[in-house]
Each structure stands twice: as structure tokens, then as C-alpha cells.
Design brief:
Blueprint: H1 9-21, E1 37-41, E2 44-47, E3 52-55, H2 58-61, H3 70-80, H4 93-110, E4 114-119, H5 122-136, E5 142-146, H6 155-159, H7 164-167, E6 176-180, H8 194-206, E7 226-231, H9 247-257, E8 261-265, E9 289-292, E10 304-309, H10 310-313, H11 331-345, H12 349-370, E11 374-380, E12 383-388, H13 398-408, E13 413-415, E14 418-423, E15 426-427, E16 433-436, H14 444-463
Parallel strand pairs: 3-14, 5-6, 5-7, 7-8, 8-9
Antiparallel strand pairs: 1-2, 2-3, 4-10, 9-10, 11-12, 12-16, 13-14, 15-16
Length: 464
């Protein structure tokens, strides 16, 4: 185990300036002193001392296709030299063709006609989806969302994000959400299979509609004030919790019975993170709205958007000017998004991601057998979780995971003579879950390397 790392003189100058001039409102320093990075490529980033770190979180799954992906970078460079910018009220080819690709894909998969609307990022696209939903439901502003769910930190998005810390000062604005338990089987009641627990959670939700005394249904007129249920098919910030395969199908049946829309938030799990373009595809349901962002442009340009079915978003019901952003559908972002979809259509990307995810999960399961502090591992594609617990294998142990994160950022582990650091992301209801989102381009030797580095961190943590 190494000593505490000290910032270089050059880095310290920058850190002093940050302390004086930068807002900390959008900043969380997981380690002290924080690292300052200078370059990136593939699955790696390098700090100002040229120390390499294997990144297993890839900018919260925004860089699904690897840092400095040559093909996607070149698409951006080409667009810069042709049409780098144009006001969003004017058309350009990229906006139309990217919309077509997403809408045609949805028609093929869900059997629904729909349209695509762009904005500059995930939270902003959640805001647009709230407008579409309210507009299509005669102004209803009550929503359902899940405990552990995360949809962003703009005002509307905070309102449907379950973290009270995020909502306490800002979130009660316009929309309000009722938060419903998610089928988090590892922390659910004992004695049920995963599928049984999923059905149990749906049955508890359905009880809200049984009578006027259960809370959300007026049987005299057959109406509810709730407009939509916002779901992350795989919970992201909540700890990459993967529900049983029967869950959303049963939930959607209840929603359809009561005229409540399903909005699938794919901002973190979309674009093949789980082995499919949209993670909701695993669950055999038809969403009414899909919200996307992050990996659409591999992190090269802030661009997100929504797909909504035709009845909700056609120009008669959602007319021009319903919402607007100066940089929405900008040509740099749409050019990269188009190239990404073309790239992933040329090979069986889903099969590749599922095979790598299975291999990585088997490695995590082996670590779980050897380290009792790992209470649970799970994964779908390359969205993987590793829950760190106390000696009983269940009690959340945030302190141990914090220690592992700090040790990984020291950059002093050695594998096969190579000195490396390891970047991990922390998630979960108790902040005790390693949420693993490696590059989808990660090689099998790099997966092996990541597992060896994780093993070293676990050894340090259990022997400290």
C-alpha cells in the first residue's frame, strides 16, 4: 500500500485556482487531491504526470465506444470542415437522417410510428419529455418514478429523481412524483425468487388503483391524476440494479389499464450498454416515450433527445415552438450520432457486448467467491454491478468502497510490470456499489487486467 499521493507543484497551482474561481456546485471530488487529466485513448486516461488509469466507468457510460474513437472523432472533424453550425430553426441533413434512423428502428422493434426531438443533453431531454407528457395528458403534472431512480438535476428532472438530497432545495417545481419500490432482489424480502419479487412489486403498485381509498384512482370517473411512469429499465445511479425479465411486461399491463404512459429513460443504458440499442428491449414491452443522451455522440458533443409515439408528438398536438434550444439538433452532434449508428449496424454489436459482459461477469463471480466483502454481483451486457458489504455479506459498506476508489486513483498498482491506476464509479442506494461501465470496445485482455486490478484493491481493502 502506498502513501498518500501529493499533487505536483504545477497541479497545485491549478487546484488553488479552482478553489478560488470555480463553482463547486457541479463538482464532487472523490479523492484528495483530485487528479488532473491530460489525455485519453481507448479504455485509458492519463494524468499530468503521464500515469495511466484503466477506466471502468467511461464518463458515466457517455463514452461507450472508447476514448478518442478514431471513426467517431473523424466524423466530428469532417463536419467541422463542412457545416459546423447552423441555427436550430434551419434544417440540415444530419438532423433528418438521424431522426429517421431512430424512428425507423423503433417502428421495426415496437411496431409504433413516432418522431424524434433533440436537445442538448439528458436532463434537458427529460424536461422536453415532461412537456410532451403533460401536453398529451391535458396538463397532468403528477408522475410515478422509482425509488433509486435518477433522471437528472434540472428542475423538472429533479422532481422525478428519488434522491431527496437533489430535490430538497430545487425539485418541487411543476411536476411531482410518487416513488415506487424497485425490484431490487438482493435487498428484497427473503424467500422469493427474482421473478416472484418482480410480480410482488407490480401487485403492490396495482393496489393503488383498487379503490378510491388506495390512493390514485377515482373509480366513479375511471381516472387518475398521474400522467406517466418514468423508468430506468436498468437503474443507473441507483446501482445498476437489474430487474427480473417479467417485471416491465407486468407493470406495463397495469399502466395500460389506467391510461398511464411509460417513459423509458435510456440516457445511461442506451446505445448498446446492455447489448441492445435500448435496454427496454430486453423486457418485451412497448414504451410510449424513450429519452436518450450521453453515448449518442460518444461524449464528443452534448446532444440528447426523445422518441415519442406519433399520437403524443405529431405537429397537431405538439406544434412548432412547444419547446426550443439554440443548440438542439446541432450538426456536429447529429453527424457523430449518425456515424455511431452506422458503425454499430455493420457488425453484430449486441452479440459482441453480451459475450464480453458474460466474460466480465464470470470474473466478478469468481472474485465474489474469494472475497466475502462482495455481497452481490450482476450484469446485463456491459452494465455490471459489484456490491461491497460487511463481513455478513449484506450490510452496506460504503467506507470500504471509498477506500478502494482512493487506492485505485493512486496509480501505484502493478500488473505484469505495468504501473496502473483504476477508475471506478460509486453508485447504489447506500453508495456501496461499484457500477462498472467499461468501454464496449474493451478487449478481453483489458477485462482480465481490470479484474486483476480489482483483486488488488480487494486485497488492500481486506488487509488494511
Amino acid at each position: 500500500m502506498s502513501d498518500i499521493r501529493i499533487a505536483t507543484a504545477e497541479d497545485q497551482v491549478l487546484l488553488d485556482k479552482e478553489a478560488k474561481y470555480c463553482s463547486y456546485g457541479d463538482t464532487v471530488h472523490y479523492i484528495e487531491p483530485p487528479r488532473i487529466f491530460s489525455r485519453c485513448e481507448g479504455s485509458y486516461v492519463w494524468d499530468t504526470e503521464d500515469q495511466a488509469y484503466l477506466d471502468l466507468q467511461m464518463w458515466y457510460s457517455a463514452v461507450n465506444f472508447g476514448y478518442a474513437n478514431p471513426r467517431l472523432n473523424n466524423a466530428l472533424k469532417k463536419q467541422i470542415d463542412t457545416l459546423p453550425q447552423i441555427a436550430s430553426q434551419y434544417l440540415h441533413k444530419g438532423k433528418i437522417e438521424l431522426s429517421e434512423m431512430i424512428a425507423v428502428d423503433a417502428k421495426n422493434k415496437f411496431g409504433l410510428d413516432g418522431r424524434v426531438h433533440f436537445n442538448v443533453g439528458g436532463s434537458q431531454s427529460i424536461e422536453d419529455s415532461l412537456k410532451v407528457v403533460r401536453n398529451a395528458t391535458n396538463g397532468k403534472s403528477l408522475m410515478f418514478a422509482f425509488e433509486g431512480g435518477y433522471h437528472g438535476r434540472t428542475l423538472g428532472a429533479s422532481s422525478i429523481t428519488s434522491s431527496y438530497r437533489y430535490r430538497r432545495r430545487y425539485g418541487h417545481f411543476g411536476e411531482r412524483a410518487q416513488f415506487i419500490p424497485f425490484p431490487y432482489h438482493f435487498r428484497g424480502p427473503k424467500g422469493m425468487t427474482k421473478e416472484e419479487y418482480g410480480s410482488h412489486c407490480v401487485q403492490q403498485f396495482a393496489r393503488l388503483f383498487e379503490t378510491e381509498y388506495n390512493g390514485v384512482w377515482d373509480p366513479k370517473v375511471g381516472q387518475s391524476e398521474y400522467a406517466a411512469f418514468y423508468v430506468e429499465p436498468i437503474q443507473g445511479t441507483g446501482g445498476y440494479v437489474i430487474p427480473p425479465m417479467n417485471f416491465y411486461r407486468e407493470l406495463k399491463h397495469v399502466l395500460d389499464q389506467h391510461g398511464i404512459l411509460m417513459v423509458s429513460d435510456e440516457i445511461q443504458m442506451g446505445f448498446y450498454r446492455t447489448g441492445k440499442l435500448w435496454s427496454i428491449e430486453h423486457f418485451d414491452v412497448q414504451p410510449d416515450v424513450i429519452v436518450f443522451g450521453k453515448a449518442l455522440t460518444n461524449g464528443l458533443n452534448p446532444l440528447g433527445g426523445i422518441w415519442a409515439r406519433e399520437e403524443l408528438i405529431n405537429p397537431k398536438i405538439f406544434p412548432p415552438g412547444s419547446t426550443h434550444s439554440t443548440f438542439a439538433s446541432n450538426p456536429l452532434g447529429t453527424a457523430v450520432g449518425l456515424e455511431m449508428l452506422k458503425m454499430t449496424s455493420e457488425v453484430d454489436y449486441g452479440a459482441m457486448v453480451m459475450a464480453k459482459g458474460k466474460y466480465f461477469l464470470e470474473g466478478l463471480q469468481d472474485l465474489q467467491k474469494r472475497f466475502p466483502v462482495i455481497g452481490d454481483v450482476d450484469g446485463l451486457g456491459l452494465a455490471l454491478r459489484c456490491e461491497i458489504c460487511g463481513p455478513d455479506g449484506f450490510t452496506p459498506d460504503k467506507a470500504t468502497l471509498d477506500y478502494m476508489v482512493e487506492e485505485g486513483m493512486k496509480g501505484d498498482m502493478v500488473v505484469d510490470g505495468q504501473k496502473l491506476g483504476l477508475i471506478l464509479d460509486v453508485g447504489g442506494y447506500y453508495k456501496n456499489v461499484i457500477t462498472l461501465a467499461p468501454s464496449l470496445e474493451i478487449s478481453y485482455p483489458e477485462i482480465d487486467l481490470g479484474l486483476k486490478l480489482l483483486e488488488q484493491l480487494l486485497v488492500r481493502a481486506t488487509q488494511r
